[in-house]
Design a protein that fits this description.
The N and C termini lie far apart (about 55 Å). The chain is built from 14 helices and eight strands. The chain has about 400 residues and is α/β, with parallel strands linked by helices. About 40% of the residues are buried. Strand 2, helix 3 and strand 3 form a beta-alpha-beta unit. About 50% of the residues lie in helices and about 15% in strands. It has an eight-stranded mixed beta sheet with strand order 3-2-1-4-7-6-8-5, sandwiched between helices.
C-alpha cells in the first residue's frame, strides 16, 4: 500500500505542478528559444461576413450591443448582423425588432430559437441561415473594438487556418478582488495562447470574440461549447486554430464570487470528456506540438480536482515515512487554511485573493463532475448580473 500511496502522491503532485507552473514555464522557454513565426495579416482580404450575436434574455445590454456592432469598421455591403435569440422571454426580441426598423440601412436579422437548448444549439440553428463566407461570433455583453472584424478576417491568410480567436479585455478588473483575479488569469493565459498559436494551434478560444469560415462550421452537440470544442476539432482535422490579440472585445468579469463560481461550474459541464477527448492526441508524430499543448494546458488542468484530493489523502497515509511528507502535508493544510481565512474574513490581500480564487476554481470542477454524474449538466447559461 505504501508504494501505491507514493505513486498517487507523486503523479498527482506532478499534475498540479505541471498544470500551474511547469507547462506555463515550458511554453515561455519554448517561445524564447524556438523560432516562432510572426502573425501574418492581409488587410486586403474583405470577404462577406456575418456577425452573430447569441442572446438569451439580454434586455439590459442588447441595445448597447446593437449600437456597438453597427459601428464596426468594415464595408457595409459585405457585413450583416444576425441576432440569435435563444428562446428569450423578456424584451430582447422586441428591442432587436425595433432597432432593425430604425436602422434599415444596415443588414440586421433576428433569428428566434423556439426551444431553449443553449448557446451552441442557437448557433447551430442560426448558422444554417448564413450565406456569407465568414462567421464572426460574439456574446451580447461583449463590446467589440471597431477594428475587430477586420483584424479577425485579415488573419485567415492560408487555407489551413480554420479558426481565429480574439482577445478579451476585462474592463472592471479593479472593481473587486474577484474580477481582478479573473483578469490576472486571463492575462497569463493569453500569453500562453500567443505562443501556442504561433507554433501550431491554441487549445481553447473564448466566447467573447472568434471567427471561422462558414463552410468549416461544425454542428457540435449542444452540451459542448465552441470555446473548447472548435480549436480541438479543427486541429484534429489537420487545420489550425490561432489567436489574433489585436482583435479585441471588452467585457466585465463577475464582481461577486457567486457569479464567477456559477460561470466556472457551467464551463466544467463536460470536464470528464475534456480530460482526454480523443485517442488521436496520443499520436505526437502527427499532431506534434498540439498533443503537448493539450496535455499541459487542458488535460492537467481538467484533472486538478482529483489531483488535489489524491495528493492530500496519499500524503496523509505517508506522514510517518519522512519529514518531507510531514512538511508537504502541513503545507497543503496551510494553503487551504489561507483560502478559508480569505473566505471568512474577506481580507483584501493580493495573494490571499489568488489562493481563494484558485480553490473556488477547484470546487467548481468538483461541482461540474457531480453534475455530470447525476445528469444535471445542462447546456444553458444564466446571466451574471454583475457582468451586465
Amino acid at each position: 500500500m505504501e508504494l501505491l500511496f507514493k505513486i498517487l502522491f507523486y503523479i498527482s503532485g506532478f499534475i498540479i505542478f505541471w498544470a500551474m507552473v511547469g507547462y506555463p514555464l515550458s511554453i515561455k522557454i519554448i517561445g524564447k528559444f524556438h523560432k516562432v513565426d510572426k502573425l501574418k495579416k492581409d488587410f486586403s482580404l474583405q470577404p462577406t461576413v456575418t456577425v452573430m450575436v447569441v442572446a438569451h434574455n439580454e434586455e439590459k445590454v442588447i441595445a448597447k450591443k446593437l449600437h456597438n456592432i453597427i459601428e464596426l469598421d468594415y464595408p457595409k455591403d459585405k457585413i450583416e448582423f444576425l441576432i440569435a435569440s435563444d428562446n428569450s422571454t423578456d424584451k430582447t426580441n422586441e428591442i432587436v425588432r425595433k432597432f432593425i426598423s430604425e436602422y434599415k440601412e444596415y443588414s440586421i436579422r433576428l433569428y428566434e430559437v423556439k426551444s431553449r437548448k443553449g448557446k451552441t444549439n442557437a448557433q447551430n440553428e442560426a448558422h444554417k441561415t448564413v450565406t456569407s463566407e465568414y462567421l464572426v461570433m460574439t456574446d451580447a455583453n461583449s463590446m467589440m473594438d471597431k477594428n475587430s472584424v477586420k483584424e479577425l478576417v485579415a488573419t485567415f491568410t492560408s487555407d489551413d487556418i480554420a479558426y481565429v480567436s480574439g482577445r478579451l479585455l476585462i474592463t472592471n478588473k479593479d472593481v473587486s478582488d474577484v474580477s481582478n483575479s479573473e483578469a490576472s488569469y486571463w492575462d497569463s493565459d493569453l500569453a500562453i495562447r500567443e505562443i501556442e498559436g504561433r507554433l501550431h494551434s491554441i487549445t481553447a478560444g473564448n466566447g467573447a470574440l472568434y471567427a471561422c469560415r462558414t463552410k468549416n462550421y461544425y454542428d457540435f452537440n449542444p452540451i459542448n461549447c465552441h470555446d473548447a470544442s472548435m480549436p480541438l476539432y479543427y486541429s484534429l482535422e489537420g487545420k489550425r486554430a490561432i489567436c489574433n490579440h489585436d482583435a479585441i472585445a471588452y467585457e466585465k468579469a463577475g464582481e461577486v464570487i457567486e457569479d464567477e463560481f456559477g460561470r466556472k461550474v457551467r464551463m466544467n459541464r463536460t470536464i470528464l470528456k475534456a480530460i482526454f477527448p480523443d485517442m488521436r492526441l496520443l499520436n505526437v508524430f502527427k499532431y506534434k506540438w498540439f498533443s503537448y499543448f493539450y496535455f499541459g494546458h487542458r488535460t492537467c488542468r481538467y484533472l486538478l480536482w482529483i489531483a488535489h484530493l489524491l495528493v492530500l489523502i496519499s500524503n496523509a497515509f505517508l506522514l510517518g515515512e519522512s519529514l518531507f511528507y510531514t512538511v508537504t502535508f502541513i503545507g497543503q493544510l496551510f494553503f487551504y487554511l489561507l483560502a478559508l481565512t480569505r473566505a471568512v474574513t474577506k481580507t483584501d490581500n493580493k495573494y490571499l485573493n489568488l489562493i481563494y480564487y484558485y480553490c473556488i476554481t477547484i470546487i467548481a470542477q468538483w461541482v461540474g463532475v457531480y453534475n455530470i454524474l447525476t445528469g444535471k449538466a445542462k447546456p444553458f447559461w444564466e446571466k451574471a448580473e454583475s457582468t451586465r
